Amino acid sequence: MPIVSLIAKPGTLDPALVDNLRNAWGGGVAVWLAMDEAAEFPVATVAGNFEDIRASLADQVDLNILPDQGRQKRMLLADMDSTMIEQECIDELAEEAGVGAYVKDITARAMNGELDFDGALTERVALLKDLPESVIDTVVKNRITLMPGGKTLLNTMKANGGYCALVSGGFTAFTSRVSGLLGFDENRANTLIIEGGKLSGEVGLPILGREAKIEALEQITARLGISEADVVAVGDGANDLGMLGRAGFGVALHAKPSVQAECALRVNHGDLTALLYLQGYPKADFV
């Protein structure tokens, strides 16, 4: 039986809303994974008006449909920028270079699928030429913050035998640090070329974009001997759509509109712990 999942900001999920939807859709007993935050109930079939109701409630709750089997995944495949961290690293580097506003506009358009990813990345990195290598540490220390819930997500999945991979269209100079902070098992990203202690304005080839994330999904699942259905993938940009579409659970987290439109699972109110609720973990089992 399909499972209807409701996730909201802590303290804002109204039990009356859960009961009203359950009654309207002929659902079974509601299970609260976290009081006033996350609940779910089974239904015999998905209601024909589900998408309409989902849209009408979008400003207060994340409403998703899930299978009742195979929910707890064996691998997490995560994007980094605006997913595991709250910023876009290249935008923060650009601020240090004095071209922040210009680069942010390109980034937003690229993440919404309006621009070619490789070309947009090459153009933005060129604007960072001659920044001192030390700017990376400065940005990490002063500008980068972790997305809430990330540590709990990884700790809980790893405690239950999960494998966690960070795959980014950003840069290894950042993924290596974020990976270490959160406990990822491996990380993949692009390389900023540094010459004479300064950024050269170039990125190592080949550029890791949408296809590289799909390759990571294929390669890592094959190595672990698991299927793509055993993976929960999370991201926010157009270059994440390939892996989101292939993974068992592909979650659009605070994603660009064009990305949400192509993803069945969407999280806009919850933090990264929402990925645990989607897998059926109650808050009491978080690590």
UniProtKB/TrEMBL annotation:
Protein's recorded name: Phosphoserine phosphatase
Catalyzed reactions: O-phospho-D-serine + H2O = D-serine + phosphate; O-phospho-L-serine + H2O = L-serine + phosphate
Active-site residue list: D79 (nucleophile), D81 (proton donor)
Gene: serB
Reported cofactor(s): Mg(2+)
EC id: 3.1.3.3
Entries under CDD domains matching the protein: HAD_PSP (cd07500)
Gene Ontology CC terms: cytoplasm
GO BP: L-serine biosynthetic process
Gene3D superfamilies to which the protein is assigned, alphabetical: HAD superfamily/HAD-like
Keywords linked to the UniProt accession: Amino-acid biosynthesis, Hydrolase, Magnesium, Metal-binding, Serine biosynthesis
Taxonomic placement: Bacteria, Pseudomonadati, Pseudomonadota, Alphaproteobacteria, Rhodobacterales
GO molecular function: L-phosphoserine phosphatase activity; magnesium ion binding
Claim: Amino-acid biosynthesis is one of the keywords in the record: yes
The organism of origin for this protein: Pelagimonas varians
